[in-house]
């Protein structure tokens, strides 16, 4: 009788992946590794607790397929991009908010700034920075 109960329940149990199946990174961060300022900022984030759980892709030096679907090298080098585990791609201020929320020590800041008009203001500031960024590359 015990085996009959198990047989009835078995189809309803969720199927779990085998233990050796690698899980996708919660976030993949695409950055311009040829930009000295960008490299320094990414180095700061990569030194934070929890950063080892994220995937970091230097868009200036990676193979094109490492950028994944919907992202070409020129776009990846033009601004920060972040892809979540479901494959959604965000960039600019939204990318930074996702990155910050993915790092335990920065999560509070990401949540705080991801409200109301703040993301739009951050995007405005990021676009201004992008115009000035070439000056820091010299």
TrEMBL record:
Gene Ontology MF annotations: protein-disulfide reductase activity
Lineage: superkingdom: Bacteria
InterPro entries per record: DCC1-like (IPR007263)
Name of this chain's protein: Putative DCC family thiol-disulfide oxidoreductase YuxK
Species name: Roseateles asaccharophilus
